[in-house]
Write a structure and sequence with these properties.
By secondary structure, the chain is an alpha+beta fold. Among the domains are: 83 residues, no CATH class; 101 residues, Band 7 domain (Tetrahydropterin Synthase, Chain A), CATH 3.30.479. 59% of the residues lie in helices and 20% in strands. Strand 8 and strand 9 form a beta hairpin. Helix 6 packs across helix 7. The longest helix is centred in the middle third of the chain and has 83 residues. It comes from Brugia timori.
Length: 351
């Protein structure tokens, strides 16, 4: 009976040991945002993914356990630190900063970092979170002090980059890497906010005035261009009108000349025919009488020759002039006939 009781107690102890050994993965932890102290050594240990366990043997650094199955010596090995390798987000408390143009700002942000060297993160700094937070605050104040207020608003992204670069230079001995830093809120004095609001309103009024003036200028330019185009079209129309009138007059003169030449040709042919002389005399007499009739219509006072009634004398004088011109024409036509090859061959005819 006593043997059975001892066997039952021994079995329960073995079961509790197996339960703790295989299923209990963590002990009571002292959390420090990425660094954990006091993890128990169960000889056979299972390290979770994205964690690094720093092991000390007899108080001295021994090794860093990788994720998975690991065996440690009892009593001699101790899990001193547990470093979380995931990216962590840490709030940077609000703090004051002065720009280069002496404007007081209250700025807070968010810092994203991760552990890249578990050994340095364990032995390089006592409290990584506190150290990196203080470093971010001092770096931010330093970077803001280099620029003015307008640059803070315009180049916030570049300011974040400069802060990250400065933090990484200082945090390298701690085994930490700053992934990015984001300014979250910026608070300015009330007077500065009012001045900025007035500046924004003035800028908007300025833009409105510029747009209005540009609109008036464009309208004036359009009106001037329209008037210019209208004048050009009017001048081109006037020029075309004058050209058309000149062409019309030239064509009229040409037609009149052709008609007159045809008339002279017909008269010449008629004079060379039988009775042509008498017809010419009759025509001269008719034009003589018609001319004096027109003069009498235009004015009441007329100066006339003394032998006005002697129309036959006037006709005789006109015919005498015609005969003299005809005699002068004969030598000219003869020389023209001699110089013309077609006339020499008999192809031409002298009128």
């Amino acid at each position: 009976m006593l043997y059975s009781l001892y066997l039952q107690q021994f079995t329960e102890r073995i079961w509790c040991f197996k339960k703790d050994f295989f299923f209990r993965n963590t002990a009571t932890l002292i959390q420090r945002r990425g660094a954990v102290r006091g993890k128990a050594n169960f000889v056979v240990n299972f390290v979770p993914q994205q964690e690094a366990w720093v092991v000390e043997r007899m108080g001295k650094f021994h090794s860093i356990l990788d994720p998975g199955f690991n065996i440690l010596l009892p009593f001699l090995d101790r899990i001193k630190y547990v470093q979380v390798l995931k990216e962590l987000a840490i709030e940077v408390p609000q703090q004051g900063a002065v720009t280069s143009d002496n404007v007081q700002l209250q700025i807070d942000g968010v810092l994203y970092l991760r552990v890249v060297d578990p050994y340095k993160a364990s032995y390089g700094v006592e409290d990584p979170e506190y150290a990196i937070t203080q470093l971010a605050q001092t770096t931010m104040r330093s970077e803001v002090g280099k620029i003015n207020l307008d640059t803070v608003f315009k180049e916030r992204e570049q300011l974040n980059i400069n802060i990250v670069e400065s933090i990484n230079k200082a945090a390298e001995p701690w085994g930490l890497q700053c992934m990015r830093y984001e300014i979250r809120d910026m608070t300015m004095p009330i007077k500065i906010q009012e001045a900025m609001q007035m500046q924004v309103e003035a800028e908007r009024r300025k833009r409105a005035a510029i747009l209005e003036s540009e609109g008036k200028r464009e309208a004036a330019i359009n009106i001037a261009e329209g008037e210019k185009r209208a004048r050009i079209l009017a001048s081109e129309a006037s020029m075309q009108e004058k050209i058309n009138e000149a062409k019309g007059k030239a064509e009229a003169i040409q037609i009149n000349a052709q008609a007159q030449a045809l008339s002279i040709k017909l008269v010449s042919e008629s004079l060379n025919k039988a009775g042509g002389y008498d017809a010419a005399a009759l025509s001269v007499a008719e034009k003589y009488v018609t001319a004096f009739g027109q003069i009498a219509k235009e004015t009441n006072t007329i100066i006339v020759p003394s032998d006005l009634a002697n129309a036959s004398g006037m006709v005789a004088q006109a015919m005498t002039v015609y005969n003299q011109l005809a005699k002068k024409k004969e030598p000219f036509m003869l020389s023209l006939k001699q110089s013309d090859p077609e006339t020499k061959d008999g192809g031409g005819k002298l009128s």
